[in-house]
Write a structure and sequence with these properties.
about 250 residues; mainly alpha; about 0% strand
Length: about 250
């Protein structure tokens, strides 16, 4: 029986001993399963300079308000922030206003809206909305975007004209889509669900349209298949030769 002499402890042995252990540093750290996805607006998000003509003022004001809501700023700081984002005609429009006006962020945005916003009067905007129907080759989504844009322009001019924007959008959309069967389907939905949100009605319209398109494709494929199955086969060479021989014999007998 031999005595086992323990191996001297060396750094090399220590490395081998630990080599099987997973590296904590290389492990992929995963977030807890109950972690929620939250969207944050960056506080240092920049707003593009506005000259009065380089952007639609409505879109620019929306960007400004998004940034202002994400930051903790006093009333004067908000007014100064807006003013610093102006250049050219837009800056001049505010620059020569009274000191009290320049201290109010709401009044500054209102001035910019009046000076560079939609010039159409409220009556013309209302007519454009009520006369707008779905155009040929215009998708349901595209048509809905046009209606929502017109609605936004109207409410920016007069927020009291449409007390129920969702209902007005649903009525206009359901009554003016191109497909007559879809119009009938949507009108039934609006009557049965008077408080349905406009985007829900639009999604219902898109789903209905896609289902009908799928049915048409299946019907056309089936019809084409049935037509192909019923086409009589062309006679073979032997059959043709036999027929010619029969016809020749018949002529000789005559």
């Amino acid at each position: 029986m031999y005595n086992t002499v323990p191996k001297p402890f060396t750094n090399e042995n220590r490395i081998k001993e630990l080599s099987w252990k997973p590296s904590v540093e290389n492990e992929v750290k995963r977030p807890p399963s109950n972690e929620k996805n939250v969207v944050y607006v960056q506080k240092d998000r920049k707003v593009p300079k506005f000259t009065g003509y380089n952007f639609q003022v409505e879109d620019w004001i929306e960007d400004v308000n998004t940034v202002l809501h994400a930051r903790e700023m006093s009333r004067q700081e908000r007014a100064d922030f807006i003013y610093l984002q102006l250049e050219g005609s837009a800056k001049d429009e505010v620059k020569y206003r009274s000191h009290l006006v320049r201290q109010s962020p709401d009044q500054i945005l209102e001035i910019l809206q009046d000076a560079f916003g939609v010039k159409d009067n409220i009556t013309k905007l209302q007519k454009n909305f009520l006369d707008r129907v779905q155009k040929p080759n215009e998708s349901l989504r595209e048509y809905s975007y046009v209606l929502m844009d017109l609605m936004s322009k109207i409410t920016n001019k007069d927020s009291t004209w449409m007390p129920n924007k969702e209902k007005t959008l649903c009525d206009q959309f359901s009554q003016n889509v191109q497909d007559s069967y879809l119009r009938k389907h949507l009108k039934q939905i609006v009557r049965a669900q008077s408080h349905i949100p406009f985007l829900d009605l639009r999604e219902e319209a898109i789903m209905w349209s896609e289902e009908e398109e799928y049915k048409d494709k299946r019907y056309n494929t089936k019809t084409k298949s049935e037509t192909t199955d019923t086409v009589p086969e062309e006679p073979t060479t032997d059959v043709c030769a036999s027929k010619d021989k029969t016809d020749s014999s018949s002529e000789q007998s005559d």
